[in-house]
Structures are given as C-alpha cells and as structure tokens.
User: What shape does this take?
Amino acid sequence: MDLYFGVLKSIKEDNNKVTQIMREVNIPWKTLKEILLSLINNGIIEEIDASHINDSRTNVYYILTKKGNNIYEYLRNTKNHINHVLFLLS
Assistant: This one.
C-alpha cells in the first residue's frame, strides 16, 4: 500500500513522468509499470499523451483523476491519523 500511496503522492506533487516517479518513490521500472497499469485500470490515474510537447525524453505523463484525488486525500488523512495515534501512544 505504501508504494501505491507513494506513486499517487508523486503524481499529485507534479512528479508525473515515469523517471520522476521512479526516483521519488525509489522503485524499479517493472514494479512501477505494474502499479501504473493497476491505477489506470481502476480509473485512479490517467495516462496523458505528451507527444505534442517538445520533450524527447518521454511521450506520456500521468495525472490523478477525481477518484484518484479522493483516494489520495483519504489515504493521506488516514496516515496522518495513524501517525497521531502512534505519537500519543508513545
């Protein structure tokens, strides 16, 4: 779950190209590819064709859908609540 959240967070923070996401989340291409496909297939992110942009490094970038934004915010809030409870218990 942390890898999925990391990918969503990276995309949310405009690190939305494959190499940026890989660097931010610190995961190999094969793992990222599986996560991206899962997120696309579930309507959480969209793959955007960037071939019209003069950037030869990549032809695609990713954005969160409305559903993806909602899931990201829910996970972020849940992580914050858990961290707060753990802090209170320590």
